[in-house]
Amino acid sequence: LFITIAVLIGQIILVAMGGYALSRLHFPGRDFMFKLFITFMLLPGVVTLIPGFIILHSMNWVDTYWAMIVPALGNIWGMFLMRQYMLSLPSSIEDAARIDGASSWQIFWKVIMPLCKPVIATVGTFTFLSQWRSFFWPLIVTRSKEMRVIEVGVAMFSSQYVTNYPAQMAAAALSSIPMILVYIFAQKWIVQGIRLTSGYDK
Q1: Strand partners, 163
Q2: pLDDT per residue over 146-188, tens digit each?
Q3: In this structure, what CATH number is given to the domain that contains residue 158?
Q4: Which of 95, 122, 139, 176 has the most crowded CB, counting CB atoms within 10 A?
């Protein structure tokens, strides 16, 4: 749970800042950078699996919280949703804030972020769900039992010769409860956020 919450908070902050920079700020190479990020979305995760592990091993981060938190902070899909939503916001709001003397940093935190609650809820929900059920990466970068996440722990009920199916099914059912609760409470924001970022709005 600690890892999931840490990734959730860090990822929302980073993707919001990236989405704001790519949608509201004007600097050379902005459009090229956005297209480059979109290209990276086409790459499967297994492409960066071995290089990522080598980098973490060289930094002595294997079997630490850093190995599971820091690589998960980057979310191009979340930044794409943030950018699309921020582009739908009227520029007059930002212009009025600048006339009042607000800096770009103040506009981001006090004007843009409060208006982005639907897309923040959407990104946050999918981040929580994907991080809570993450299995392959934590399995690779953790070695001790104390560092294993819940999905890896559930898989540990199965061994080479025998599988404790009752315990495994019970653990899987219990591990799905937080995901169900999060989706139930956030489904309104998820639908609204996806609808607005898709460009369809009545």
Answers
A1: 158
A2: 777 777 777 776 665 566 667 767 777 777 777 778 777 777 7
A3: 1.10.3720.10
A4: 122
What is the pTM for the complete model shown?
Answer: 0.75
The C-alpha atoms of residue 1 and residue 53 are separated, in whole angstroms, by: 23
Q: Please, which contacts does 114-119 make with residues 24 or more away whose CB atoms are closer than 8 Å?
A: 115/89, 116/16, 116/82, 116/85, 116/86, 117/189, 118/85, 118/189, 118/192, 118/193, 118/196, 119/81, 119/82, 119/85, 119/193, 119/196, 119/197
Greatest C-alpha distance within the chain: 71
Range of the domain at 146: 2-197
Residues 6+ apart with CB under 8 A from 92: none
Q: Tokens 């898709």 map to which residue? A: 198
DSSP SS3 for 43: coil
